[in-house]
Amino acid sequence: KAGVTQTPRYLIKTRGQQVTLSCSPISGHRSVSWYQQTPGQGLQFLFEYFSETQRNKGNFPGRFSGRQFSNSRSEMNVSTLELGDSALYLCASSLEGSGGLDTQYFGPGTRLTVL
Amino acid sequence: AQTVTQSQPEMSVQEAETVTLSCTYDTSESNYYLFWYKQPPSRQMILVIRQEAYKQQNATENRFSVNFQKAAKSFSLKISDSQLGDTAMYFCAFMKPPIPGLTFGEGTQLTVNP
After folding, report:
1. A14/chain B closest Cα distance in angstroms
2. Which residue of A has its CA nearest to B91?
3. How far is A43 from A66, CA to CA, in rounded Å?
4. Could you tell me which of A13, B60, B87, B91 has the fewest CB atoms within 10 Å of its CB?
5. Rounded distance, CA A93 to CA A109, Å?
6. How confident is the model at residue A29 (pLDDT cuts 50, 70, 90)?
7. How far B86 CA lies from chain A's nearest CA (Å)?
8. What tens digit of pLDDT does each residue of B38-61 get?
9. What is the predicted pLDDT for the residue at B60?
């Protein structure tokens, strides 16, 4: 099976812009979770989508949003970018996500730089 | 809230030797999953090994094994016959549905020297 894919791999944006990141899960996986990784805060959970519904959300402002499509592909959007949004954004897929004890498999990440 | 602590920010080991990475966690739950992930310079997060808390037997995957001490809330990773390709940041992680997502430790940077 193909692994989790994320596009684009690298992005450079300026403050105030918005950005959309994409994630395609492993075939058959219905849960997609997003994480932000920064040197200062480490790895933090953003949100989880399951069957096109946001099931959980971490402690992030409303500028961070996402959605999931019927084929389980997911996008996350960050509006009004701030310098502090510069990070590696990781997507992970699993069969059931927080609906059960499940293993998450990660994509290669998208490196976002905000200037 | 669950917390995961990795007290060793950096470690190094000689090629072919054995190294142990430490991880402790705090939870009041009885059934949960623990994971070790590695993140090499490519930044791809790769699953190394997982342990179900209800299983007493320690998980093993080839050269990787864990020492799971549930009462002590300890979950260490042993890497045998270390290889240069094992050089990476290693993260310990905890999962307990329905709490969302993985809770990660701070990471341990492991360097394998030739």
Report:
1. 23
2. A43
3. 18
4. B60
5. 12
6. very high
7. 18
8. 999 988 999 999 999 988 899 999
9. 94
